[in-house]
Amino acid sequence: MTSRIAAAPDLTRSHSQVPHYVTAAAFLGCLALLLLALVDVRRGFLFAAADYTKIGAPSATLYLDGRHLPLLLLGALGAWLAYRRMARLEEDPTASRPSLRSLSRALAAGLGVLLLVDLFTYRSVPASRILASGQLGIGQAIPHFPGWLKPLSDGFNYMALVWHATTLGILIGGLFLTVGSAPLRRLLGGKGFASHLAGAALALPQPFCSCCAAPIGATLYRSGAALGPTLAFVVSAPMLNITTLVLAVALLPAEFALLRIAGGVVVAILVTRATVLIASRWVDEPRFPAARPGALVRLATGAMDAYNRLFHLEAFLSDTPADTPATLVRAWLGMSWHLARIAVPVLFLGSVLTAAVVMVVPAPSNDALGLLAAAALGTLLMIPTWTEIPVAAGLLQAGLTAPAAALLLTLPAVSVPCLVILAGAVSNLRVALLLGLSVFATGLLAGGLFLLL
């Protein structure tokens, strides 16, 4: 009798937690529906091809169907109502805090799985279409503006093409920073080569372009990751993600597919490791002289400090730990919003600036000058994931082997916006400049080998 009486409170407490679990599951289910509808708006695969109204030409950026509206409304409204229900349940003083902490960790894992599945869907749909057709083009969604306004249209075009991947990158980055799990910090917090490899391995299933990987890398660094794993992750995501390597093998000549794979390993792992070994001593050093700087130096100092403060994202975390489902969702979405306010303007302005640079760069030629221009352009230019493959394929058809080799390694690895975001995250411009110069030199070396052959 005594044992039965003692067990009764535990049984009651267990039953009292059922609404928490049901509500969290409902939130994940509605969010999954919302993400599915959004990725179909971008890729158009749920319904018959003839049913979609395509926005953007020749590359569609939106695939619209009337059935999207109820899916979007049901997913968004259901997720909102589930969140409100979670918050009200957690106000109950009898709620078990240890159980809520466990449920919060499970919810964070579920959110991560949903975002990664959405990312795989986003990438796998066009990858299957490309493999089926054997063709991969460069996206163009809006007409070019005339004259010197063309860089502005290029900026709008780039954002139209990568809006979904950018959103996923921001949401995943916000979740990384909010959760800040101890295992992840232990995995990426070391300065040795094992942690460096872990940063690269973390990026393998995530086919982000450099500009989408950089905000995630910035949040990893601000949440405790070491410099090496951070750089390895940012460069490995566009260089070594599985889908890109499959497309390279399928669509490029054998020697250039080998260059893309082996060179990707060199750039993503060895070049970033060498960069860290040289630059790690700079990160904690004062960036500006202390003795009576001039007006120009003071102005540059103030601008750089203001820019660096944008990336102190941990300052936006609430003092209340995200140890319940509702506080986790609130902190995650708040952090993602702050990250979006930084990343989106940087990406747009960077795309406009790099497009302006492209306008004044002469067409590449298969000589030393053409190789130099291609390597420089590839280091500066921002492109969507996989775009280096059709660019290189087009150059190879024209007999421009050296520029094609250089662009295969420099185009995906880094870009101006990527380097700018990294500079702000680590609060040191020299680290980003060294990484950019190292990628540029690797592209020159690769192109030079094909120039000599």
Strand order of the largest sheet: 1-2
As a percent range, the share of strand residues is: under 5%
Sequence of secondary-structure elements: HHEEHHHHHHHHHHHHHHHH
Provide the gyration radius in Å.
Answer: 24 Å
**Shape designation:** globular
Q: Would you identify the regions where 5 or more consecutive residues have pLDDT less than 50? A: 1-9, 285-291
Number of helices: 18
Share in helix: over 70%
Briefly note the structural class of the backbone: mainly alpha
Write structural notes for this entry:
- With 453 residues, this protein is an all-alpha fold.
- A hairpin with a 6-residue loop joins strand 1 (53-55) and strand 2.
- The model is unreliable at 1-9 and 285-291 (pLDDT under 50).
- It has helices spanning 2-16, 18-43, 68-90, 97-133, 150-179, 182-188, 193-203, 210-222, 227-240, 242-251, 254-283, 295-310, 325-360, 368-380, 388-397, 401-413, 416-426, 429-452; strands spanning 53-55, 62-64.
- The protein folds into 2 domains: 1-99; 136-452, no CATH class.
- Helix 10 (242-251) packs antiparallel against helix 11, helix 16 runs antiparallel to helix 18 (429-452) and helix 17 packs antiparallel against helix 18.
- The termini are far apart.
